[in-house]
């Protein structure tokens, strides 16, 4: 009989845009004993998680809960619950995840209109607003932090325009939530999706979402039509309007996350413990302090990369603070450098997709991975690996430049 060894994973320094290192407290929470999902102790944990999610999303929305599944489960739940076949959806694309929004919306029968901008940049909000006026969509769906390009789209003006024109505004804040500002109410976002395995430092497997009463009205309307209409002439039409997924039907999930507790799926018990602990850590640290911490380490990383003589990819005026994209120097095999970082230093950084494949590395500064030890470790290791690969860089500068950032901060 074949024997399998005990799990014995390496302790990596994970500096990718997710999954990142989990908070040790979150890993401990994962080993908490199981409760039944209607046990009052458990439903209390569900309610507390909703409360904490509202704070994370900076919203007064009643609805804030995790969808079970990875972040794209949250995106799919929101889109499939509000899109009816033939609905026009405007999706501005500035990286890979705009294509994901498009792919999901199209599968649910949306009439998708895309506008695209060059990778490494974001949209001028005026351009998006002009397009909204032109195509008159029911929904605008956009990515806040594009992990594929390291860029961040300003959302407030677009949100305000959507509200004025009675368009639903859906935002993928998977990468940005918990690491940089995401103000759901102030920016007039109708539905937002967050991620766990990025700046929350909780394992992958849940997608926190929030939505307001404008979205709720659409869901309730669809449910009413689904249940109330019996006229055979309208049956075909009714069928068309039913939310096409059972698992991702937000109207059913609302009943599950309300005091009615109507049975839907079995809540992912251990993941909910993990998310609750991750949120507790975020709120203990404080959103403002947490965002400042992410910025400090991003600065140290950026100064270190620059001091080495490497170039950053992307327009600096719209840089996503939690992902830093570095141009791979000419003649250097990016994958070989990444392998050396992993094998010799136990550090993981990310490669890239599509048009950027082989051209940039992406270094995340997210959640628990975003700390001084890791920044200094990755800079020292990257410098050593580049020298080993024959790259012409300013040796000995990177870690010093990062230390300068930390020391200046301490003396302020
Ligand atoms: C990571 C990511 C996703 C997808 O998340 P999964 O957890 O892999 O489903 C979606 N959008 C953005 C912006 C992301 O960074």
From TrEMBL:
Aminotransferase class V domain: residues covered: 38-351
InterPro entries, sorted: Aminotrans_V_dom, Aminotrans_V_PyrdxlP_BS, PyrdxlP-dep_Trfase, PyrdxlP-dep_Trfase_major, PyrdxlP-dep_Trfase_small, SP_NH2Trfase/AEP_transaminase
Needed co-factor(s): pyridoxal 5'-phosphate
KW Transmembrane helix (keyword) present: no
Keywords: Aminotransferase, Pyridoxal phosphate, Transferase
Keyword Transferase: yes
Cited Pfam families: Aminotran_5
GO molecular function: transaminase activity
Family: Belongs to the class-V pyridoxal-phosphate-dependent aminotransferase family.
Protein name: Alanine--glyoxylate aminotransferase family protein
